[in-house]
Amino acid sequence: MTSTLPELYIAVDVEADGPIPGPYSMISLGMAVAGRPDLTFYTELRPISDEFVAAALAVSGLDRDRLLREAPTAQEAMSAAAAWVDGLRRVGRPVFLAAPAVWDGMFVHWYFVRFVGHSPFGATGSGVDLRSYWMGLTGSEWARTRQGTIKHELGLHDMPHTHHAGEDAAELAQVFDAVLRRRQPVEEA
């Protein structure tokens, strides 16, 4: 039986110090609910391995030595993230959203399963990918689905992408909220 509560699209953004979880670390995680700018979550994470790619680490601007000294452990950070997502169930049904969902989803699902034992987004960790959603909505080709292109087509011009996971999750939440407002209502058969 489906709940009568609305779906809550949880925009998720990850910063990492390498291309895959496990050998490399997720170093920050941001989440924001589309249409609800008051509902956000952000944490940094202590790296879980000694390996990192300097260029990947540089994207976030985070200091790895500071994270090793001061950031919560992956278990602490992911437990707090899971509790935040689960707390949203009072007002809606959480649905994972990312851009691209493959990148962010890979890290988030792996970290939830590894450090919490399960993902609050379900057994597969699946969710909505902004670019795929935009393709279906507009009929555009993949090459025309970059987030910057989508923002331009929606008239969202003063929204920088900062590579701060919390800020970028809030940006994605705003973009997806605008995308949802643009879609045509589906007639029931």
TrEMBL record:
<dbReference type="InterPro" id="IPR036397">
    <property type="entry name" value="RNaseH_sf"/>
</dbReference>
<dbReference type="InterPro" id="IPR012337">
    <property type="entry name" value="RNaseH-like_sf"/>
</dbReference>
<protein>
    <recommendedName>
        <fullName>Exonuclease</fullName>
    </recommendedName>
</protein>
